[in-house]
Amino acid sequence: MRSPFRDALTTALLLTAAVAIVAAIGTQLSGGTQRIIIDAMIKMIIVLGMYIFVGNSGLLSFGHIGFLGLGAYTAAWLTIPPSIKASLMPGLPDFLATAALHPLPAALAGGAAASLAALLVGIPLTRLAGVAASIGTFAMLVVFYAIFSNWTSVTGGQGSLYGLPVFTSLPVAAGFTVATILGAAMYQASASGFRLRGSREDAVAAQASGIDIRRERLIAFVISAFFVGVAGALYAHFLQVVVAREFYLKLTFITVAMLVIGGMRSLSGAVAGTAFVAFLSEVLRQAERGIDLGVVSIGGRLGLQEVGLAIAMLIVLIFRPRGITGGRELTLGWRSR
Amino acid sequence: MSLLRFASPLLSAGILALSASMALAQDKKPIVIGAAIARTGFIAAYDADPARAAEMAVKEINAAGGVLGRPLKIVYADTKSEIPQGAIAATEVLDQGADLIIVTGDFDFGGTAARTANAQGKIAIAPFAADPKFGVEGIGPFAFSFSTASDTVGTVLAEFAASKGWKTAYALTQTNIQYDLSVSRAFQARFKELNGNAALVGTDTFSMDDATIATHITRIKALNPQPDVLLLSTFTPAGPGALRQLRAAGLQMPILSGEDMDGDYWLKSVPNLSNFYFAAMGSIFGDDPRPDVNKFIAGFKALHGNHPSTAHTLTGYSVVQAIKIAAERAGSINSDAIKAAFEKFKDEKLLVGPTSFDAKTHINFMRPMVVMQVQDGKHSAVSLHTPQKIPGR
Predict the structure, then answer these.
(1) Distance from CA of B235 to the nearest CA of A (A)
(2) 20 to 30 A from A203, CA-CA: which of A213, A226, B93, B276?
């Protein structure tokens, strides 16, 4: 019998190789292109983090962007110079107000904070199943947003927090992406991951086999929040600004769309979906400025990106309703499934 | 020797030299201004007219020989009214060889693009960011705003109210954006300085999410005596709604607002509005006390068929004017040189008004503003008002 860890590792290594190639090519490209690649990689960490919970449990989550925000705010609390913090966030407790950490530990702290929040929220949330659970996660997003945008003395409210050091370079983003791919693959291959997927396929049968579904869901929820929280910190250091409205519906929908389009039941799907949507939206954005093919030049049209993306998503979902990968994993070709 | 024989070689040499220098100006690489602004999304409405004004300035300057003998050129990248896209748009225009960049006039929405330029040591100009944080403190040493600061708006309104003999005031503030909060803060401080602490008879806040401000109105109506003047620090679309509710409730006292209520696009929603005043960087209705502003507005109308949406438009023109002045003084378009030249600006005469910068302050405080009024649904300029003292400065 094949070891699930070896299978997962094969998939992870193939995906890692793809990320590494993109990163290596990216370092040779212009600053603008690099930013686009970094942005896509951060989204990939978010989508992979979501996949750990969504893919394995079968419950769609609309709340993970709340964890992203928490990670970003944690990074802001820990890395913005204390002199700026004093005027922007007068309500911070002393140990945060005086902190001036390096972005790397701050990113890990962002992940830990998101995990802790996931643990607290997850205890009631994992009691729910199906659509109710998804609506529950959406409610969580709304609560997170309300806190971020109204607790002015600690989060800056509607205004933006600035003064974050630059950290998220292309190699850093690629490194974290690879770590997340490995983390997601390891969880997927673990006994807990198996039990959770069992509950996804048939909850009654899983329970009859002695699986504590709530416990497994909670484990996946906490792990997935960790990676999304880290992504939040990376995002904060990428934008160098943290503002509440960034962590709400728009990013929620684009990341959920990435996961669904790629195929939310496989790790490869999460990666493929992110890559596909990110690449397509960039191509369309370039097309907005007009395409010059030498012989013919096609005039640009502002707003093409949004419309084109929606059409492409519809086409994918009509012809491949289970996503691009259809829930299959990327493996070495000669091995039969 | 006939004069002609003597003169013709001289003349032809002169023509040759002239045409050569003209050809040189045309051949020379243009100075590229990168505009990383919103061309789609909800901010696009704010960015469009200042960009048009900048294009007008570029055209005029190029017709007059350019800057340092080089023509100006604006290249664009769309931020899509999204904060993260700002950085990408800025990198794109810089990749296209932009010598300096113009960003969206807002601390949040223009900030990411401005920070990107700053990190590369390039000048980033927000034509109309009114938050004083847009500058050295919030962005970096290469960030400049050509707007008049929000503190000035509140100050001008308070001083105008005092000059009208209005002794008591009530401040109603919308809390969704920093601008309204800081206009209100400055107004309250200055009004108390001028008329005593008791002159501010009450304050209240509302949010865009509030469907009505009926409770706020009830509280104002409960005051006896009624305040002489009401500050309504707000922006559209919530502002006109609030204004209509106040008037419908029978509150007829003068109402003051910041420049976010500039323009007449919302006026139809408050029929027969009277006794409404706001401070703006200029009048877009052709009756500005300064003739050069009126000339600009007329030119804009001739070109685009309508007057600019708001007076923010003036800043777009002024930015290009200032770039020319700074580049010619510095003899270079290098960002460090431009920065140094900008920081020596002392009441520089630009379309939007006298403009000064120093090493710490990259936005204008002591610049006069036009107080505008609406009477019987018609806009007109009241006066040009220079702030006397800005609270906290």
Answers:
(1) 15
(2) A226
